[in-house]
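Moderator note: this is an archived Q&A kept for reference. The question asked for a predicted structure of one protein chain; the sequence and the answer are reproduced below.
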Amino acid sequence: MKSHKLLEGKKGIIFGPLNEQSIAWKIALASYREGAQLVLTNAPIALRMGEIKKLSEECGQAPIIAADVVNNDDLKKLFEESVKHFGGKIDFILHSVGMSLNIRKGNHYTQLNHDFYHKTLDISAISLHRVCQLALEMDIMNEWGSITALTYIAAQRVFPDYNEMSDSKALLENITRNFGYHFGIKKKVRVNTISQSPTRTTAGSGVKGFDAFYNFAEKMSPLANATAEDCADYCVALFSDYSRKVTMQNLFHDGGFSFTGITETIVEKMSE
């Protein structure tokens, strides 16, 4: 896509890029294309396993700073080093973080390991509260800044194999509303979630029945599933000055899936 320089002069932190399949990876590339300066971050183990150095090179040698999202000291260091690198405050933050050991271990929702469950909520949702709380306390965000997190419609509807990740997404969206209120009043910073179509990522593909999720949504969406690249462009819009009064929202980016009762394709399939 041609650059419109929507983020010219803006500075942002991208949480969660692992490899080229990651939505966060695509968002970093789109943000850089639109003129942003970036800091890239992920957990230390993810940095060792992933390919983030390649992304750094494609984003103008963007610094890579390791940070565990459930460790406040790591997050403080990340924010301090980012402000120092940029020579000033930050304009946007992407939260693209999620992990479920219960899903990895094949534990059914009715038979969860609750220690794993707590970890899922901490990494996938409470981490957004940590990020927002420290960003506010440390006063690192410019006015009219934007914090955006990625979610999924399983926060509102039952997708059995999405397991306790659906609980974490519901919590993530509620944190967005509550912190969006306080951050807006105190610093004019907006906080939103994007509810993305099922997308073929390393994490998403690990969910049991993912292909069925994906194919059903494709047939149920008038515009078909939104790709990771589509999501990246939407994020750019939320990071930009063109969405300054959009906050506390869960924004469905799913080709119309969220408001479609049934489609002709599904009727035809069921009538066979």
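Archived answer notes: Residues 17 and 24 are 5 Å apart (CA to CA).
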